[in-house]
Amino acid sequence: MSKENYDAQEKNEKETGVQSQYKTWFLDYASYVILERAVPAIEDGLKPVQRRILHAMKEMDDGRYNKVANIIGQSMQYHPHGDASIGDALVNMGQKDLLIDTQGNWGDVRTGDDAAAARYIEARLSKFALDVVFNNKTTEWQLSYDGRKNEPVTLPVKFPLLLAQGADGIAVGLSTKILPHNFCEIIEAAIKHLRGKKFDLYPDFLTGGMVDVTNYNDGKRGGKVRVRANIEELDKKTLIIRNVPFGVTTSSLIDSILKANDQGKIKIKKVTDNTAADVEIMVDLAPGISPDITIDALYAFTDCEVSISPNACVIVDNKPRFLGAHDLLTHSADQTKDLLKKELEIKLGELQEKWHYTSLEKIFFEEKIYKELEKKHETWDKVIEAINKAFDPFKKKLKRAISREDIVKLTEKPVRRIYRLDIDELNEQIKGLEADIKQVEHDLEHLTDFTIAYFENLLKKYGKGRERKTEIKLFEAIQAKQVAIANTKLYVNRADGFIGSGLKKDEFITDCSDLDDIIAFTKSGKMKVVKMADKVFIGKDIIHIAVFQKNDERTTYNMIYADGKSGISYGKRFNVTGVTRDKEYDLTKGDPKSKVLYFSVNPNGEAEVVKVLLSPNCSARIKELDFYFETLEIKGRSVLGNQVTKYPIKSVKFKEAGKSTLSARKLWFDDQFGRLNTEEKGNYLGSFDPEDKILVVYNDGTYEITDQELTQRFDADKVMLIQQFNNSRILTAIYYDAAKLQFNIKRFKIETGTMKTRFLFIKEGEGNYLASITTDEQPVLLLKTGKKSAPDIQKIKIADFVEVMGWKAVGNKLVDKKAVDFEWEKKAGKDDGQPELFE
Questions:
Q1: Full set of structural domains in the chain with CATH
Q2: Average of pLDDT values for 110-114?
Q3: Whether the Cβ atoms of residue 535 and residue 506 lie closer than 8 Å to each other
Q4: CA geometry: angle at 52 spanning 334 and 124, to 5°?
Q5: DSSP string, 508-577
């Protein structure tokens, strides 16, 4: 072989060798990251770094706090990734307030503040961790990365730790996100599972707030939860944010609010962070801005509401698997049962071994077998053999064979055990051991009940103070365009047919939001809905332009147009409830020469009278006529309309305003979301004309008069009465006077006229509250006193002894605190279109 060929072959072999080394490196690395760093194991719910930290802390545990720097150093004997990863993982576990008892400044997940340096803060294992995480007898061990020490493969955790702590990790090609759940609810779910009952599990966050779990999907891939901060209305000018959504900090929340304000989505004057022990972010509103709409806008445009997508990936049999919260709970509960079984079996073996040796010891001294030691035997083996033979009559009483080690151990006992007192003590020990063995055997036979009792004990011992912090609620869908502040201006160039925010030299139409849709009509009878933009072409000769409200069934367009082909004029009335954006719609018969002669927009379906002047050259005998739009039905936009005249029209002029041809608007109150609506959701309030008002009474003894604006928010839990307002109606209210420990009653009329302002109509005082209210003209009260199980019921006609008084009056004493319930007697056959007016 030539030197050139030899060199080429050697080079090729080297290249092949290198290729074989890096061919699978990425797969190996990915597997390592998934199994050894990012994804928790299903057995104990821990990632390797967390497991090693806990193991190191257990080795150091002496009941006292240790410096975190020291814990990190101890953990580095097992974890090959350095102090930074250990320190971060340790702080993360400490902030979850479950396994680690902390001391010092450990940071704050609500504010995003970091923990102090490791040399300043301290930690130790919590009592809970010591109870449920460790047991050397049931732990499987492996060598550490350097082969110097043993570390646990997984810890024998007897609790659904993964669901309680949650987990978050990014591996190569996959990630895991398991949301934390409530400690008490987890235990209750485990008990239900063990009893064969169904259970539900939903996330709970230390940061509090509210969560909508409608689409949680058991925490599996594809699920989603929406989390909101609690926002309170301090007054009409100030909002207070009381907590932050999970994963959001106060600083990032404030940044998102300022960003939304800069973009014109909301209008605020100032944001102040007063967070200390509790979160408190003050939001001062700009003048004239609605607090209700601003609350909705904060949820729509800022981090006051976030969406979280769970992705429960765990390591099962050294492979990543995607499971749900139900699977994780049942696996952990069943594993806890198995671990308790192992512990009981180990304990039973130890008790039996102790019983065996104690019984040997008793026989050894009681039957004076020890005297074999005084006899002269040739060798030590002969002594052992002699003692073993001396036990022959008693071996049937024992539970296993006597070993040489047993006998050697007996010979090492002091001779003083021959005293009767010591024999009695051995008998007592045997009785105690037999009772313990019987109990353990009973627990093994009733393992499910034993496991349930174990979980119940955990709940009793550690459940206090771990109640649910995040309120589960249904969130209403907030339409961003309905709550966006008018942050731009709409202009129109009617002749050229352009609209937009950039036409600042042309005609100003209205303030609007950059999220709004705009509806426009042209003289040729064309209609188009477009997205608000800098400049959009609609069509020449624009006759009307406005912000488009989808599904608006009350705004009615009245139109007269001349057909370009036949010359006949048609009148039509129509709504526009929904369209395809940017599509051009023809409102005429379709001839390009058609043109609109008259057009009006009526917010409540008003039908005016117009004067139609015919062309003076036409053959019609009467050249002037009145047209009544009320004769036309309101139909869809595509309707051709009714004929007005076959003669050419010179002009159409407004003559007389008409009344609404629509029925009064029907309103409902959705007591789930605290919203007014027209979609028949919740309690029916009645039919409302445009000028009608609404009366709302709250359980704190206040009332307010408000309008029909659908964007208003009401705290449904505090609303005791909501109905159409009638200033002649008499209200009958019962309230509790805490100072006098009595219930008072009063009848009054609403005398105030200020809108959207709450007035206190009961006696002012701490602990006072409204107990019941009705607007019945002749109310009859069923007063229940005495025992709740068998109350005395007294029927009282209130109008007979309580006169109508001023709304500020204290009222009359009704009964002492002994009353157990109030109920207003329902009138048979009464149906006035109003909802129930009492609690």
A1: 1-32 (no CATH), 39-157 (3.90.199.10), 225-308 (3.30.1360.40), 328-462 (1.10.268), 488-548 (no CATH), 552-662 (no CATH), 665-824 (2.120.10.90)
A2: 88
A3: no
A4: 95
A5: EEEEE-TT-EEEEEETTSEEEEEE--S-EE--SSEEEEEE--TT--S-EEEEEEE-TTT--EEEEEE---
476 DSSP 8-state letter: P
Active-site residue, 120 included: yes
The secondary structure of 367-424, three-state, reads CCHHHHHCCCCCCHHHHHHHHHHHCHHHHHHCCCCCCHHHHHHHHCCCHHHHCHHHHH
Q: Could you read off the pLDDT of 202-245 as tens digits, one per residue?
A: 999 999 999 999 999 999 888 999 999 999 988 888 999 999 99
The answer, yes or no, to whether residue 388 has pLDDT greater than 80, is no
> Per-residue pLDDT for 115 more than 50?
yes
- Three-state SS across 110-179? CCCECCCCCCCCEEEECHHHHHHCCCHHHCEEEECCCCCCEEEEECCCCCCHHHHHCEEEECCCCEEEEC
> What does the pLDDT look like over 638-648, one tens digit per residue?
999 999 999 99
**Residue 823 pLDDT > 80:** yes
Say if residues 154 and 43 touch (Cβ distance below 8 Å): yes
Statement: residue 836 has pLDDT above 50: no
Q: Which of 665, 755, 662 is nearest to 706 (CA)?
A: 755
The answer to whether the beta carbons of residues 543 and 597 sit under 8 Å apart is no
Q: Which of 107, 159, 585, 87 is CA-nearest to residue 340? A: 159
pTM of the entire predicted model = 0.79
Burial class of 521 by CB neighbour count within 10 A (0 to 12, 13 to 18, 19+): buried
Using DSSP's 3-state secondary structure scheme, residue 269 falls into strand
The helix/strand count (H/E) of the chain reads as: 16, 48
For the record, the structure tokens of 38 come out as 């990012």
CA-to-CA separations, 187 to 156, 332, 333, 825, in angstroms, rounded: 17, 11, 9, 44
Give percent of the chain with pLDDT exceeding 70: 92
| Residue of 832, 699, 709 whose CA lies nearest to 776 | 832
- Choose, from 120, 357, 598, 703, the residue flagged as catalytic: 120
pLDDT surpasses 60 at 12 = no
Tokens of 252: 């990032």
Q: Give residue-wise pLDDT tens across range 34-88.
A: 555 668 888 888 988 999 999 999 999 999 999 999 999 999 998 888 888 899 9
Q: What is the pLDDT of residue 172?
A: 65
DSSP string, 613-678: EEPTTSS-S--EEEEEGGGSPEE-TT---EEEESSPEEEEEEEE---B-SPPEEEEEETTTTEEES
Dist CA 376 CA 381 (whole Å): 12
Give 647-698 pLDDT, tens digit per residue. 999 999 999 998 888 888 899 998 888 889 888 888 999 998 888 999 999 9
Count of C-beta atoms within a 10 Å radius of residue 834: 16
Amino acid at 690: P
Token reading at 188: 């209750």
DSSP state of 41: B
Q: Which tokens belong to 304?
A: 């006051």
Would you say 722 and 716 are in contact if contact means Cβ atoms under 8 Å apart? no
CA–CA separation, 581 and 763 (whole Å): 56
Closest CA to 47 of 150, 154, 138: 154
Structure tokens at 330: 């049942």
Q: Which of 387, 439, 438 is nearest to 408 (CA)?
A: 387
Q: Average model confidence (pLDDT) for the chain?
A: 87
In the block, residue with structure tokens 């002009």: 651
Tokens of 254: 């404030």
